[in-house]
């Protein structure tokens, strides 16, 4: 027996409202289905396009997208006396503990020694042009490359690549008991290359200040993540970098200029951009010549992004707050088919953590988080960004959708011995994380960084450069 608690009039109106409710519900379902259908069509369009481009690619490029697994064999636990084991039972060590442990028996896996170094001056025959993420990489004089936290400028005029980064070839120490490991400022190193594999040391293009203790570049301070772009209007090469004091409380950016990519760069000044604290940062030059600064701010809890002035020597009044409350740093920005992408890391000092990819239609936002771009290796490898931290993403003008992801494998015990992790980054397929503004429908391309123990640019790409 059905029980009815409503008077008839109410029943009637409730009947009509449930009827209009169901119309609304069905309309919404219909709309969602249409949207879904549309997104599937777009998706298959994108996939078809990808298949088309991949068909026209050199087969070696497909090789770069192969998923390579990594099997890190854990060392046998060290022997302990039964008494010690009883007093403090040992928790099982994880791969990340081994990575962070300077005396780990498997240290050579993360920091292979000089014997395995990449030496482009030696005729390696069929082994030429291979990148080995994590191995020591020698310049043309046989010294380990010193360009940490760096970025690459392709100089159209000389058709040469210039790699700028922190020259850290000094002793590592702690200024305070609780302070992060550091190396005194030596300067910004610059290396030139035509093939992105053989690097000639062009020397320090911006050197530390030896005497004046109040100077930003005094060796007791911090200079990190230098990046250089070329200003077509002024004909100057402009360098922006993170400038700080030993306690990281100055939290500023420094600006330097030069007439030549190989310097010397004149240091102009430092500032807190838009009057905000600024730590990890990068700059990005858009196709239309407008350049932007992106920096971690408000104690690294969010990123700020804003255009530079025409000369690239200052910020403007325009700035937006992005990824608010997400605590991201080490931003590396790139663009593909009108969409902006960015890789960031979490904030764990020199220790590696999980990278995230982000995308935006407008560089000033809103930015959406797409998920972890790392593919292959194993779970730990993927969740530590291949034991490294993003610094730059280098585009290939000749091959849209293909990039080199550049990262630093920091060695806090000996920062000068930090390694470079370069890996292929491609765009394509659906993003793997439901998104805020698209009702869970994939909208952006997936950003994928593929783990390889060794890889090289396909000949066709090397020829294109
Ligand atoms: C990291 C940052 C590095 C450096 C380091 C110092 O979080 O990405 O560039 O500043 O901290 O601890």
Automatic annotation (TrEMBL):
Q: Mind listing the GO molecular function terms for this protein?
A: hydrolase activity, hydrolyzing O-glycosyl compounds
Q: Which SUPFAM superfamilies match?
A: Arabinanase/levansucrase/invertase
Q: Has UniProt tagged this entry with the keyword Amino-acid biosynthesis? A: no
Q: Which InterPro entries match?
A: Glyco_hydro_43, Glyco_hydro_beta-prop_sf
> Which UniProt keywords are listed?
Glycosidase, Hydrolase
Region annotation Disordered: where it falls in the sequence? 71-91
Checking Gene3D superfamilies in the record gives: Glycosyl hydrolase domain, family 43
Tell me the Pfam families matching this sequence: Glyco_hydro_43
Listed Basic residues bias regions: 75-91
| Gene Ontology BP term (one) | carbohydrate metabolic process
Q: Which domain of life is it from?
A: Eukaryota
PANTHER family assigned: GLYCOSYL HYDROLASE 43 FAMILY MEMBER, GLYCOSYL HYDROLASE FAMILY PROTEIN 43
Protein family (similarity comment)? Belongs to the glycosyl hydrolase 43 family.
The name under which this protein is listed is: Glycosyl hydrolase family protein 43
Where does this protein come from, organism-wise? Forsythia ovata
